[in-house]
Amino acid sequence: MAAIFPARIFSLAAAAALLIAVSCPGCDAALSTKYYDKTCPGLQPVVRSAIAQVVAADPRTGASVLRLFFHDCFVNGCDGSVLLDDAPGLTAEKAAGPNLGSLRGFEAVDAVKARVEAACKATVSCADILALASRDAVSLLGGPTWTVKLGRKDARTASQAAANANLPGPGASLASQLASFAAKGLSARDMTALAGAHTVGRARCQTFRGRVNGGDANVNATFATQLQQGCPAANGVGDSSLAPLDAETPDVFDNGYFLGLAQQRGLLHSDQELFSGGSQDALVRKYGGNAGMFANDFARAMVKMGSLEPAAGTPVEVRINCRKPN
Ligand code: HEM
Fold it and tell me: Is 315:76 a contact under the CB 8 Å cutoff?
């Protein structure tokens, strides 16, 4: 795809025209674009209109749904396990360190699932709904779109320990982020593109307090001072106050995140690690200068991430209620 967009502006019209065709060698061969063609032919418009309502009411929730997909796929594959509530014999991933008090968007997924159940009873997995809803949220926020292969199944179990072990935290170094993604078969380029998801959404003070209160040298001084207003150094003060991950355009899926990194305006320490004299600096600059390249790479990497499978032998089903096994 040779489309080139101006440095920051990645307009809705351009995004709508940009259906990115991605191939994924080695990805799950069982997934298919035609999986529900006979059993639920109206699926994709139903998901799209349901998530469009969600995003219109609150754009941030589109970002939150996208993050849910990441936190699903990185923990034993894209199997809807992140959506499960605690139950006897089941310890939810929701209470894992990277998720507790932080993940949101569950009600939005419930709302999409309810619409899908009304159209096609007990047919479409929550894992597939999350894959479609994330794709649609990105495009509704102004980003690219891509074809989602379908046929994922929902796990009957969850693993809080795997969530704690597999999800990188806001203090992560570049090396440890690269290692987390490599462990999932994702390249450095995939990782940097996927981190571009932080062009939308918000983070809580407790995830960036250190960075903006003297903990990091590579932070823009004006930016840090502004953030200290809502997020002072003292632990416990303003812990949950929010700041945008992309200060300029937090509700637009553009390449502004990368422009921010190049100005040392990354919100999280882990964000700024992508542009701190290391291996990803050149790519960050490229994405900052070429929105189309970022859009292409992001779409390709989402397809790869979305094809991570649960371990063989994991008990699976199509859940009726995304929060509990049938
Ligand atoms: C590269 C390693 C990553 C780290 C260390 C990381 C860490 C974080 C943290 C700490 C937050 C703020 C959480 C809070 O304060 O409650 C956040 C938010 C977010 N993350 Fe990441 N993340 C990473 C990669 C990704 C990826 C790959 C995606 C999606 C493809 C993603 C999507 C998001 C979104 C959209 C938000 C905002 C959510 C909202 O506003 O509700 N992140 N991330």
Answer: no
CATH classification code of 29-167+306-317: 1.10.520.10
Helices (H) and strands (E) in the chain, counts: 14, 6
Q: Where are the domains of the chain?
A: 29-167+306-317
pLDDT tens per residue across span 39-51 = 999 999 999 999 9
Q: What percent of the chain has pLDDT over 70?
A: 91
* Catalytic, out of 71, 211, 265, 304: 71
Q: Mutate which of 102, 194, 198 to test ligand 1's pocket (most atoms within 8 Å of Cβ)?
A: 198
38: CA distance to ligand 1 center in Å? Answer: 36
Three-state SS annotation for 220-242: CHHHHHHHHHHCCCCCCCCCCCE
Is residue 155 within 8 A of residue 76, CB to CB? The reply is: yes
Q: What is the pLDDT of residues 61-86, one digit of tens each?
A: 999 999 999 999 999 999 999 999 99
